[in-house]
Every structure is written in C-alpha cells, then in structure tokens.
Amino acid sequence: MLQIFLMFVDISHEMKLSSNRKDLQVHQAINIMNFTASICNRLNLKQLVSNPPVYSSATDVSGEGLSLIFRRWATKKTAGSTKNGRDSLPKNLGVKKFGGERVIPGNIIVRQRGTRFHPGNYVGMGKDHTLYALKEGLVKFERHKLSGRKWVHVEPKDGHVLHPVYADAAAMKKMETMA
C-alpha cells in the first residue's frame, strides 16, 4: 500500500511538470491524494500490511488513475437468536368468592402468594396459601382493629356447631350458672 502511495505521489509530481494539461493534472493529483489519505485514515498500518485490498488488476490504469474495487466485510453478526415472545402462564390469583357469597365445602375463596388473608372460622388453608371453605355458608371478610390483619370466615348455614367435647363443657357451665 505504501508503494502505491509513493507511486501516486510520483505521478502527481510528473503531472505538475507538464504545462499543457496543468489544470486537469493538478485536479487529478489532488483527487488521488485525497483518496490515498482517506484509505490511510480508515485502515491502520497492520491492516495495510496483513490485509491488502482487492484490485481489479494491477495494470488497470485509465485516464482517472487506478480503478480500485474494495471488498466489505460485515461488522455485526446477523440472524442471531432472540429472547422475545416468551412469557409465563397467568397464575389467576385473587379473591374468588366475595363477602356475602354462598360457598360449599371445598370452594376456593382466595388464591394468594403468602398470607395476605388469614383463615378464620370454617376456612382451611392449602400448602400454596389458598383459602377454601370447610362448611357450607356465607363468606365474611374481617379486618382486625389493632393488627390490621385480614381474616376470612364462613358463617355456617346451620349456625355455629361446637365440638362434642366442648358442647358438654358448655352445657355444664350453663347448669352451674343456673344453680
């Protein structure tokens, strides 16, 4: 590449000596110098030595100077894989049965992550914190006044039923209060 540059400088010097076509030759010399300067600016010396540009032919000389054909290489990889268009399925969380709605045993009342709502009377909690009805009745939401904790209860259709162990204790207490 440096030899070509020196050849261009010699040609431009010879063109300047000729007085017949002085204007044309000066114009051509300036164009050639601009061209070689732009090549030197775009390529560093290592590329000039190791990766010479491709020419159509070494003897291809026209009235305008050497005809150069450069090969371009891609500067960025194309057609790579993309990570768009993937999404997880919806989890369908939230309250499923609202306050005052009728539920039967096994009905899901709330699907949640963590314990945003806590199970109250006749409400069970699954391993994924899902709240479900244990008895038939109406759903009731309650917020504790001091802690602010939200509780979900089911008001049974038959009324509250005590466990037999506690039913006997309650009956005994009534008898004691009467006597």
TrEMBL record:
The keyword Ion transport does not apply. It holds the Pfam family Ribosomal_L27. One of its GO terms (biological process) is translation. Gene3D superfamilies: 2.40.50.100. It comes from the Eukaryota. One of its GO terms (molecular function) is structural constituent of ribosome. GO terms for cellular component: ribosome. InterPro entries: Ribosomal_bL27, Ribosomal_bL27_CS. Keywords: Ribonucleoprotein, Ribosomal protein. This is 50S ribosomal protein L27.
